[in-house]
Design a protein that fits this description.
The complex is a heterodimer of chains A (94) and B (482).
Chain A lengths: L2 H7 L1 H32 L8 E2 L2 E2 H25 L13
Antiparallel strand pairs in A: 1-2
Chain B lengths: L2 H26 L4 H7 L6 H12 L2 H14 L1 H7 L5 H8 L1 H11 L4 H9 L2 H34 L3 H49 L3 H11 L15 H12 L6 H4 L8 H32 L9 H9 L2 H39 L5 H23 L6 H25 L5 H21 L10 H17 L13
The chains are: A mainly alpha (94), B mainly alpha (482).
Membrane topology (chain B): Multi-pass membrane protein
Pfam families (chain B): SSF (PF00474)
GO molecular function (chain B): pantothenate transmembrane transporter activity; sodium ion transmembrane transporter activity
């Protein structure tokens, strides 16, 4: 199979691998943010909770702000570091 | 019967129906039936892609069962639901460009096509097709029940009649329209979900007298409702974190999701879909589950969790608007059902029939068979849903877990690790599914984790270990894609 080597060295795969790793990195960050705020602030007795916009602080930071932070982060990452590539094979009909 | 609420609901459904028929016309004139019917001709743009992902994902688990459980458990369940935000970016980033390029190269139309070309093994294909058919079937039954429940509580007709109406509706447009119809209607449904939940959330907050008021009502009833630990304090951090695998990153292995990751037009569509998807999934999940919690002080004492959504909508909104908003969960269920239905029929026609029973089947025969099997499957699910169990969310999650345990490593490692081979893939699938079913039946929460976690971890090591120890057997016969 001649295509084998072409496939091994395809520069598009370098891009793809890097972007997949970015995805993993974002998920790890997302998890830490979610966990630390939820159980860090939410772990005490409910009578001691502080409230932000009427919601318990742990919930506000972990769930509400968490979504906003992830949306902004994902937008920046995609716009800055994601590269446009062609999915079709050169010299092949699609 | 509540006609004021019913008319807008029917209106939305009719629009969706019309789109299905329109997409069906496109298919009849197509000369590449398989690719168009099962994959929409790989032509999805960014917005449609993001919406179809969200809609498929935001299934009855989030829309009916989810808010119902949030009603019982309090804010802890919203926290759990938020693990789903990661799906918005993770799936498309991780499968990403590599999956798009490789599946085009393989000319794959289904996830099983990809596995078939990657591993070149009959057993991998048959086991995959079998898992899809079994697990997706149970997921589908759960969705139909949810859909029928919704119609039941909205119109007040008997469950069986509601189920019949629902089934007829879904069947007609999936059968004629195929993937393109499903993706397009998903886009409409996703938008309805997004706007609908937003309106309902605001109306619920107003009806409850503002957030501080609702929160103090909740805390007065049971302080646990405002903690991350659930009403009875049973939602431990380990258990809730497990959902990062079950409904978060593990979703990468669900066939109904992966098939979407091979259907988009170009990398620009993919980039847009990642951004739109993250925002839309995040907002829908947050709104939907928060509504469930906030409904509690307003409408105390609802016993069947599935009815929380319809009842709160009818309570806090004018009737016509409630009908419009309730098109959202209805839309969510339908869009999940239609894609699952298509998936099972593609698995039977494409993965089993065309691969192993009749590879030479004519174009016309395949076409008739695809449509016929889709219809027959619908009827079987209908019969199964006639006698339904009560809490649909668990049924649904069982199917998710099984598929994830089966496919996560054969797909992800198959894409990124050259040395993975068919022995590793098969061993990992069998271990994953086997352990999951055993664990779920006999040790429901090992170490406080959800029963899907350990099988997923163990099957990773099985994949790597078996692949490495069979390197000699598996020479260069497989085309490498690393």
């Amino acid at each position: 199979m001649k295509q084998q080597n072409i496939y091994d060295n395809d520069p598009r795969y370098k891009i793809a691998n890097r972007e997949a790793l970015i995805g993993v990195g974002l998920a790890v960050f997302n998890f830490i943010w979610w966990f630390v705020f939820a159980y860090g602030l939410g772990g005490r007795d409910p009578s001691e909770y502080s409230y932000v916009f009427g919601l318990p602080a742990w919930f506000f930071y972990s769930c509400v702000l968490g979504v906003v932070v992830m949306a902004v982060l994902v937008t920046i990452v995609v716009k800055k570091w994601f590269v446009e590539v062609s999915f079709d094979e050169e010299g092949e009909e699609q | 019967m509540n006609w004021q609420a019913l008319i807008p609901l029917i209106g939305v459904l009719l629009i969706i129906f019309a789109v299905g028929i329109w997409a069906g016309k496109y298919i009849r004139s197509s000369n590449n039936f398989m690719q168009d019917y099962f994959l929409g001709g790989r032509s999805l743009g960014g917005f449609v892609l993001a919406m179809t992902m969200t809609a498929t994902y935001g299934s009855a688990s989030s829309f009916i069962g989810g808010p119902g459980t949030a009603y019982t458990e309090g804010l802890g369940w919203v926290l759990l639901a938020m693990t789903q935000v990661s799906t918005g970016y993770f799936v498309l980033m991780v499968l990403g460009k590599k999956f798009a390029i490789v599946t085009r190269h393989y000319k794959a139309l289904t996830m099983v096509d990809f596995l078939k070309e990657r591993y070149r093994s009959k057993w991998v294909v048959l086991f995959s097709a079998f898992s899809i058919i079994v697990f997706i079937f149970s997921a589908m039954a759960a969705q139909w029940i949810g859909g029928a429940r919704l119609i039941e509580s909205l119109i007040g007709i008997p469950y069986t009649t509601a189920l019949f109406i629902f089934a007829l509706f879904v069947l007609v447009y999936v059968v004629i329209g195929g993937f393109r119809a499903v993706a397009l209607t998903d886009a409409i449904q996703g938008t309805v979900m997004f706007v609908g939940t937003l309106i309902l959330l605001i109306a619920t907050i107003i009806a409850g007298g503002g957030l501080p008021n609702i929160m103090s009502d909740l805390a007065a009833e049971n302080p646990n409702l405002v903690t991350p630990y659930g009403a009875e304090g049973t939602l431990t951090p380990a258990f809730v974190s497990s959902f990062w695998i079950l409904v978060g990153v593990g979703v990468v292995a669900l066939p109904q999701i992966t098939v979407r990751a091979m259907s988009y037009k170009d990398s620009r569509s993919m980039h847009r879909a990642i951004i739109i998807g993250t925002i839309v999934v995040g907002i829908i999940m947050l709104n939907m589950h928060l509504i469930g919690v906030l409904a509690r002080p307003i409408l105390p004492g609802i016993e069947v969790g599935d009815k929380v959504m319809p009842l709160i909508a009818l309570e806090v909104l004018p009737n016509w608007l409630a009908g419009l908003v309730l098109a959202a969960p209805m839309a969510a269920i339908m869009s999940t059902v239609d894609s699952l239905l298509l998936l099972v029929s593609s698995s039977i026609v494409k993965d089993v029939y065309l691969n192993y029973i009749q590879p030479q089947a004519s174009h016309r025969r395949v076409k008739r068979l695809s449509i016929g099997i889709t219809a027959i499957l619908g009827v079987i699910v209908f019969l199964m849903a006639l006698n339904p169990p009560d809490l649909i969310i668990w049924l649904n999650l069982f199917a998710f877990g099984g598929l994830e345990a089966a496919f996560i490593w054969p797909i992800v490692m198959g894409l990124y690790w050259k040395k993975g081979n068919k022995y590793g893939a098969l061993a990992s699938m069998v271990t994953g599914v086997g352990l999951y079913i055993l664990s779920d039946s006999f040790f429901p929460q090992p170490f406080g984790l959800h029963s899907v976690v350990l099988p997923v971890i163990i099957s990773f090591f099985v994949y790597v270990f078996v692949s490495l120890s069979t390197q000699d057997k598996e020479n260069s016969s497989v085309e490498l894609i690393g």
